[in-house]
Amino acid sequence: MTEKAVENLSQVVAPKKKRHIKRQTREGLVGYLFASPWILGFLAFTLFPLCTSFYYSFTNYNLVDTPTFVGFANYTYLLAHDVFFWQTLGNTMFQVFFGTIFSIIMGLIAAVILSKPIRGIGIWRTIFYLPMCVSSVAMALVWTWMFNEDYGLINQFFEIFNIPGVNWLGDEHVVKISLILMSAWGSGITALFFLGAMKSIPNYLYEAADIAGVGKTRQFYTITLPLITPTMLFMLITSVIGNFQYFTMAYLMVGRGTNYSAYYLAYYLYDKAFTDNQMGYASAISWIMFLIVIAFVWIIFKSSKKWVHYMGGE
Amino acid sequence: MKKLKFVIALLVGTLGLTSCSPPLWFMETEDISDYSGRQQLIFDHLWQRGADYYNEVNDLINSFNESDIAKELNVYVKGNGINFWDYWDKVNLSISGGTSPDIYIHCISSVPTRLKNLLNLDSMYEYDVENGIDSLNSRDMFFDSQISDISKYSNNEMYAWPFSSTVRVVYYNKDLFAQAGIEKLPTTWDEMEEVSKKLTTYKTPGDEDSGYQVVGYDPFSGEGQYLHQWGWLEGHSFWSYDSETGEPIPNFNDDECIDNLGKLYNSYDRRDEAARERLKDFMNEFSMTGENVFGSGRLGMFIGNEGLNATLQDADVDFNYGVFQLPTLSSDVTTTNWSSSYSIELYDNSKRGLTDEVALQRNRGSWEFLKSLYSEKAQGIFSGAGFMLSDKTYYDEYIYTSEIKTALSKAIENTREAEYIAAAPNWPSDIQTYVNSIYSYDMTIQEAMDKAQTLMESKVEQYYSVNNILGRR
């Protein structure tokens, strides 16, 4: 091989090698570039507020003056003296417990119905999902009408059967239940998740059960239910978190409720931050709420080993 | 086929875009291209692009920018019109985030929360006087009540100017009054009830069970639902202050308060349960449709502010109406009217870390622009936009020409804003849920006020538990 040829070869090979490294880098950069909107959004709108709220929770901050460090004063008062914190936590726990159970049961029932080979199933599935496309403000207005004590659709329906009307939103003992009942409106998404899980269960399991003479109800409890538990775990966690953050519908429909009966923790946090201008105290509430949510999720995860069944192991 | 789809998509897209926003190309906009090199001042206001009076407000801004004083000070104002519902959050966040607008509209009741960053307008006036500059003296322009509301938290110095005056009066249906042969307007609660009875009629004359055709008066509908103004009417104060610590002490359930409210409540609570149900049904007819109950022409008297006048004018109601002052328990008590008015505030540019020279230049620019907002032309625009003017200077032109506005202006003389309580800045609405329980007969006045007292005590305790650590009182 002549010197010239070697030179030519090196010119050809060297750039190739260089180009190969560049391509890797470039691909990496392109990857980051695609992910950058999310990364920037996460840094600016999640991580940064998270860190600052942690700092603010140890300060007295009225949104105008510079935050002043007060140590654990916010947390101490919140946990030891604040009656409203415990009241709103109680209301929130009611929403978390019953709201979660109700939405999962409603979603499950809807999924079972939608999994049947009935005529026009596509339309039914769309109808079940449609409420998810409605804005929460519009939904709140519609439900406020439906729950109206005198002219509401629900009480008018009761009147047909001579059942006395209920003050759905005005009665402090009923309002929390009304808000939970209303959440059935949005169970379409839960139903779709369950439906997806049900459809992924292999048919041969049901065929084997049929051959063995196992009834449909028992098939549901022994095949369907156990095999959709991974989805149920997911729905349980998201629903618990969502219900801890319950705010919009209560705010729009009943304010704080008669005698503060629909005053939830997230609403209390909002009031402290933006009505009472106590951002430090509000931050402390948010961190306590965060810890409670973490504890709940941890318990659910721990317990999931006993009741979640993964097909073919974890 | 592809072409057809493309054309349809283009049409739908264009129509969608044009329907989403007003035709921007027809809008007059500020021309700020000629102002390069000048200091920019931001004016946050409530007239967003496309809203009524946007162009007029823009004209005011442009006029100022073209004025000699703006050129002399080397500043220009950039208007920032924000939708009413977004306005308050945006302004509050920009103030707390350190990027406050230079000039903005806010609420008089919350001036104390922003006091530290506001420009002292009295000192700006004094600067003008010392330097022989034409100026405006707030003491000559505004009602004493509004001056007091703003300056009582800052050693009688004005850190904001009133922009509008929102007060409560009783609107009455003149036609219904004439039909019932009522000539004298009521001034006490007892007289209100007497008049109310005369005005009330049933759908089937004489048959109560047929439901109300006309209701004389529901004391707790409209703006009447707010309890504190009823307390104030009789001279009750819901807050006192600890002489040593200065901490606020709530007085929501003391005997005087319960007694006064009881008298008001009982004076209209002589109807039986069936009557209460009829009233509820009557009010529900309107709450379901969203129709203004007074605008329906079926309510004799109704408590409202200047906004109701605008609503009735817009609706072009087919009856005559007038207004009179809120009645009191006895005729020898001076009315104290609840005011919830807007202010105009200037951010003190010396807080921005600028050089003294630039800060003064910007502050003077803001101050000159503020003065321009109280010109005859500007006040005419704001009056036309539905605001009850706070500046008395042009009342002959814009207020005394209207019977309603004249009556509203009389109420301003005896107004007061809700006390600013740092521990509970929103205390009137905080207690509203308990007040509603009185109206719905779920609680007695005593029970509701006991709960209101507990709530306020806990707010004060919580607030000072932290602030006392810092040695702040």
Give a description of the structure.
The complex is a heterodimer of chains A (314) and B (473). Chain A is an all-alpha fold. Chain A starts with a helix and ends in a 7-residue tail after the last helix. Chain A has helices spanning 3-56, 73-80, 83-114, 121-129, 136-146, 153-160, 175-182, 188-199, 203-211, 216-227, 229-244, 248-253, 265-275, 279-307; strands spanning 59-60, 68-69. Helices cover 72% and strands 1% of the residues of chain A. The mean pLDDT of chain A is 89. Chain A folds into 2 domains: 3-56; 81-307, MetI-like (MetI-like fold), CATH 1.10.3720.10. Chain A is built from 14 helices and 2 strands. Chain B is of the alpha/beta class. Chain B has a 5-stranded mixed β-sheet, with helices on both faces. Chain B has a 5-stranded mixed β-sheet with strand order 6-7-10-5-11. In chain B, strand 6 (201-204) and strand 7 form a beta hairpin. In chain B, helix 20 runs antiparallel to helix 21. The longest helix of chain B is centred in the C-terminal third of the chain and has 23 residues, at 445-467. The model of chain B is unreliable at 23-27 (pLDDT under 50). Chain A binds chain B through residues 60, 62-65, 68, 70-71, 73-74, 77, 81-84, 145, 148, 150-151, 170, 172, 255-260, 274-278, 280-281, and chain B through 89, 92, 95-96, 113-114, 116-117, 280-281, 284, 288, 422-426, 430, 433-434, 436-437, 440, 442-443, 451, 458-459, 461-463, 465-467, 469-470.
Q: Give the second-level CATH assignment, the architecture of the largest domain in chain B.
A: 3-Layer(aba) Sandwich
Helix content of chain A: over 70%
Q: How helix-rich are the residues of chain B, as a percent range? A: 40-55%
Question: Structural class of the secondary elements of chain B?
Answer: alpha/beta
- Low-confidence segments of chain A, given as residue ranges, are none
* Number of E-state strands of chain B: 14
Radius of gyration of chain B (Å)? 26 Å
The first-level CATH class name of the largest domain in chain B: Alpha Beta
Poorly predicted regions of chain B: 23-27
Oligomer: heterodimer
Total of domains of chain B: 2
What is the CATH homology-level superfamily of the largest domain in chain A? MetI-like
Which structural class best describes the helix and strand composition of chain A?
Answer: mainly alpha
- β content of chain A, as a range? under 5%
